[in-house]
Amino acid sequence: MMTKVTLRNLAAHKIRLVLTALSVILGVAFVSGTLIFTDTANKSFDTLFTDLYANTDVAVRAKPAIEGSDDDAVTAIAISEDLKERVAAVPGVKEARGEVNGFAALINKDGDLIGGGGPPQLGLAWNGDQATPLIEGKAPAKAGEVALGERTAELAEAKIGDQVRIAVRGGQETATVTGIASGDDLGVTFVFFDLATAQKLLLKPGQLSLIVIQGDGSASQQDLAARVAPLLPAELEAVTGDKLSEETRSDVDGALSVLRNFLLAFAIVSIVVGSFNIFNTFSMLIGQRTRELALLRAVGASRRQVTTAVLGEAVAVGVIGSTLGLLVGAGIAALLKVVFAAQGLELGGDLAITPAAVIMSYTVGVLVTCAAAYFPARRAAKIPPVAAMRDDVSIPQRSLRLRTIIGTVLAALGVAALALGLSGTGSTAATFSLLGIGVLLVWLAAAFLAAVLGKPVVKVLAAWYPKVFGVSGKLARENPQRNPRRTAVTAVALMIGLSLVTTVNVIASSARASVNDLIDRQFGAHYNVFTMSPGGVEPAAVDAVRAVPGITKVVPIGYEQFSFNGENQSYASGEPADLLAVSNASVSDGTATTGPDGVLLSEGYAKDNKLKVGAAVPAVFADGTRTQLKVTGIFPDSEVLPSIILSPDLWHAHTDKALAREIAVNAADPGPQTKQALEDALKPYPGVDVMDQADLKEMVSGQLDGFLVFFTFMLALSIVIAVFGVINTITLSVTERTRELGLLRAVGLSRRQTRRMIRLESVVIALFGGILGIGLGLAFGIAIQQAIKDDIAILSLPYGFIVACVVFSALVGIFASLAPAWRAGRMDVLKAIATE
Amino acid sequence: MPHTATQPPAPTGDLAARVLHVTKSYGSGDAEVRALDDVTTGVPRGRFTAVMGPSGSGKSTLMHCMAGLDSVTSGQVFIGDTDLTGLDDKRLTRLRRDKIGFVFQAFNLVPTLTALENITLPLDIAGRKPDKEWLDRVIDTVGLRPRLKHRPSELSGGQQQRVACARALVSRPEIIFADEPTGNLDSRSGAEVLSFLRSSVREMGQTIVMVTHDPAAAAYSDEVIFLQDGKIVGTMPEPTADKVLERMKGFELPEVVTR
Fold first, then answer.
1. How far is the C-alpha of A762 from the C-alpha of A477, rounded, in Å?
2. Residue in A with minimal Cα distance to B94
3. Cβ–Cβ < 8 Å for A627, A619
């Protein structure tokens, strides 16, 4: 019987429940979309790596030169080619292939590099690896011939027989395309050379990056590796194919799980907002059905049955919402896959809808709906049966005092968690958990306190209403206060998204101000020529810069890693005195002249490691050389310089193809002509840009804008859900006040005035939410900025954004009231009065 | 008593409101229900007129049509010299605001406004300043001065209804329509409200039309119009509760007998 009541009620309040289900659908879609997409990416990588290492039983590779570092870039030890023949003779080895890999990027017809920005641009020696079979043409056989990856060729619009330009570390090559091979998935680009050319361009003649061994099936991977190991010199190792695959996987898995957690964090925000809507809707439905529920109680339903009936509705909404949410989520994941493919990041295979993702979606959808509906359901059970006989019984509202106490306690706990998180816990996971919990608690506290805060705030916000809008304004000022809890929860739902958007804006605005200040203070050169490409700035480009008339100083700067004082560190290398000068710095102790084995340290680093001028420090370079370096000078801490500076001599001596990452350039007459001349001189060198201070600021600004757009986009969904909440609340207010609206219309309130009254009420609720959100966001943003003062020194409040945010909130209010206000205006006066 | 009464001639003279051959029907074809059937009558200015009849007689419909709250199927409705039929919602709203006052049975006040704000509501809606002297007189007549700052929830039912009466009076409308104004009140509060309505007619020259089914309430009026089955079946000047009760019995008795 109670089931029937539940079902009938679902049917009777379709629209309201659709709005509620929409909150569930959107939240679940976000969760399932994230899970399905990352699962799909995972599966795609799985397939890729399985294919990639299908024929690899054992690989011979160089041990990391610097202990504790897995970074390939740090290893510059190559494998002698004759080792391959010896390894091939080991019993159980079917085939040993020499592999050569390095950076090689195709240059397209516009002179830009193809690929990059994450996935590697690989140059490879053709060795007949079945993972990358030829699908057209023939393999490269001699210098001047290349085969391209299928998608690489597509991106560069290159066909067999075409001449292509290829950028490699330290130069460019021209070659004819002889073949097309497959296997360049996920944004990787392939350029295949014959072995000798690959060695010459990517490595050194007679050397290999890797020896890949395929067994004949008679021995396990472990046994093969053990048999190969004794043949190897000390700096090399034999690893099984499984281990190699696992290592690569774990890198990708790490990146994917970071992405997943990041997206899920935003999904949680949407779900929290949605749960506020669900709570509100169920509270309202129960408020409206007081008499009906009392009747059920009067005819013998127990409290428990009433609670169960209401929760039954919640389960139904949760299940339906989750199912649709799952479908929408799969759609979003499919769409993302298409978007990624359009960006050149093709994920192979179909969408992976794992049971875990399905279970998670339903769990989240149903649990959140039930949890949000639980409190209204319990309140429903408290309706006394006598309420069925009288018209004036409403469910007793608990006093706001209890709310104030609960809210204050929650706020205190939240602030404590935030403070603890911001003061740093040492572990990133712990910090983020604390911050997350703190933010959630503060939101909840706001939901409790907003009911108390609402009255004075709304009064102030709407103080001008009666003056400007007359009686409509007067009524609109009072209406939000008739149900302070509902107003509060509606406003808080909007607050959540806006608080995070504001936080991000405060941080971005402060970061912008701080970086601009930094550039002003520490960017000492007139121009900075730099590249993001792993190929570096080729020497010819440095010469081209030197040849530009009016250039007075050219300082090529390299960044490399080495082991210093027992730790993996990066160092900058350039003429030390020049390097300091172009960073507006000079040594504060000792001398900038380093000599053959000298090193400059920053004050902070020297102090932390208790190193003084004259100290001798052990260092291991990427080529395996172990040496002692002498500290010759100390320079003030700088944001633009690493803590360690070495002379170019040391850098060149220990780095294979030492290439500058950037060039600091000074000119006699730094103006637009000089910049133009530099740009012209650098035209033949793809991926190299010229920047002055203004360009640099603009670039940082652009990056921050991108970051803002991304965050706002991710939070937009939670704001959309909150807008549904406002629509829901206003619609209900109109329905509840049908008779009052009828009375007002009868005594002469015009349709326009009625609509205006509803609109103004909606606007003041939205403004309340907006102001709460901005306030909270400012508090969060300022707290974070203060906590990371070392990185973001200057606090800058985004005033323009704040104004925009207030205007946006008002617009949300107007938008949310469109349909309810229209309905209120169209209301039939007679029917409204007659409504029971 | 005649089974079906012939309609009395329409009153003439100075009329605040009149209806001419008004028919109001709901539904169509076989399902058609005539709530008003060719009704012609008028409300004399400065008088207290009661409309009576059994349930379903069309008395509320008549009032709704006269007040411009409901449209008519055919015929004409006048408030003063203004023909309501054919006015759009905007003009009807303005007419209600400026020329008509309302007192309903229940849910008469806006809960978020104080008693005083409720009284001046029609003036506020119109954007007019209340005539201070008149407002004071109305407030004193209803005896609400000490409770002006209270919200409706803090007032008794009788007090609420007196606020509603004051609201109807304050804009000096041409006519006030009262729909069962004592329906929800105990007899003492009801008597208070009714005597207040009568005195506003006597002392302030207000025109009032009251729909009621309570003979005691009708006795406060100057004249009673009787309705049955959508037709006017008689009038009674200078009514008393007993006379009205007699007459009402007369309406219903034959029907009871025939069924």
1. 10
2. A748
3. yes
- Tell me the pLDDT tens digit for each residue of A88-136: 787 877 888 888 888 888 888 888 888 877 778 888 888 776 677 888 8
Contacts of B89 in chain A (CB under 8 A): 751
Q: pTM to 2 decimals?
A: 0.78
CB burial string A221-239: b at 16+ within 10 A, e below: bebbbebbeeebeeebebb
Phi, psi of B179, deg, nearest 5: -105, 100
For B194-217, how does the pLDDT look when each residue is reduced to its tens digit (9 = 90+)? 988 898 898 888 999 999 888 889
- Pairing assessment for the beta strands A101-107 and A551-564 based on DSSP bridges: unpaired
Q: List Cα–Cα distances, A424 to A275, A431, A437, A781, A785, in angstroms.
A: 31, 6, 15, 16, 13
- List C-alpha distances in Å: B89 to A106, B68, B70, B97: 73, 9, 11, 12
Within 8 A of B69 by CB-CB distance, chain A residues are 746, 829-830, 833
Q: Is A487 helix (H, G, I), strand (E, B) or coil?
A: helix
Contact A748 B89 (CB under 8 A): no
Kindly report, residue by residue over A791-831, the tens digit of the pLDDT: 888 899 999 999 999 999 999 999 999 988 988 888 777 77
pLDDT recorded at residue A836: 43
The rounded distance, in Å, linking the Cα atoms of A459 and A480 is 10
Asked if B126's CB is within 8 angstroms of A479's CB, the reply is no
Q: What letter represents residue A319's amino acid?
A: V
Q: Tell me, rounded to whole angstroms, the distance of Cα A454 from its chain centroid.
A: 35
pLDDT attached to residue B253 = 47
Contact A748 B98 (CB under 8 A): yes
Cβ contact B96–A470 (<8 Å): no
Question: Do B112 and A475 lie within an 8 Å CB cutoff?
Answer: yes
Which residue numbers of B have CB closer than 8 Å to A's CBs? 64, 69-70, 89-90, 93-94, 96-98, 101-102, 104, 107-113, 117, 121-122, 124-127, 167
Q: Which residues of A touch B104 (CB under 8 A)?
A: 743, 746, 833
The CATH superfamily of B45-57+88-258 is: P-loop containing nucleotide triphosphate hydrolases (3.40.50.300)
HSE-up of residue A318 (Cα within 13 Å, Cβ side): 25
Residue type, A803: V
Residue B137 pLDDT greater than 60, yes or no: yes
Cβ-based contacts of B92 with chain A (< 8 Å): none
- Compute the C-alpha angle A721/A478/A291, nearest 5°: 70
Q: Where do the DSSP E strands lie in A467-550?
A: 527-531
**A744 to B108: CB separation less than 8 angstroms, yes or no:** no
The closest CB to that of B69, out of A750, A751, A830, belongs to A830
Q: What H or E segment, with its residue span, contains residue A787?
A: helix A751-787
Q: A596: Cβ–Cβ under 8 A, 6 or more apart, which residues? A: A647, A649, A650
Q: Which member of A470, A749, A830 has the closest CB to residue B64?
A: A830
Out of A470, A739, A745, the one facing B124 most closely (by C-beta) is A470
Size of chain B, expressed as the number of residues it contains = 259
Nearest-Cα distance to chain B for A408, in Å, is 29
Give the HSE-up count for residue A30: Cα atoms under 13 Å, Cβ half-sphere: 29
Residue of B nearest to A474 (CA): B113
How far apart CA B61 and CA B50 sit, in angstroms, is 14
pLDDT band at A75; cut points 50, 70, 90: low
Place of tokens 């792993």: A534
DSSP per position, A320-370:
HHHHHHHHHHHHHHHHHHHHHHHTT-PPPS-----HHHHHHHHHHHHHHHH
Q: How many helices (H) and strands (E) does chain B have?
A: 9, 10
- Rounded to the nearest angstrom, the minimum Cα separation between B16 and chain A is 18
Which residue in the set B93, B108, B117 is minimally distant from A743, CB to CB?
B108
